[in-house]
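Note to self: keep these together.
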Amino acid sequence: MKLIELVKHLKSVKESEKFTSTQLSDIEYDLIDMYMIEKVDLDSDILFFDAEKIPNKLILEVEGVTYENLFPLNMAQDMIEEFVGTNASASDLEIAEFIINYRKKDA
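Structure:
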């Protein structure tokens, strides 16, 4: 899953919890950490990890694959909800770009 595909599920807490209850039911909501394969980029796939089961690192290597941390899912959801609140007409691409740019420049 790419970030642009995930954005629609993170525009509100209710949508986010619905997504996680169906797609990530084996991980507690507040413990979902999002990592991107190879690097943080719009074209990178996202994988979800249980924060209690992985080391707290920016870069992880699992079975020969490198992952770079994006954000905890609940933090990304808060950021997206706030961004949409002030930019109601923003497209999913604009929201995804905001998250990526924030992570690369401000986080």
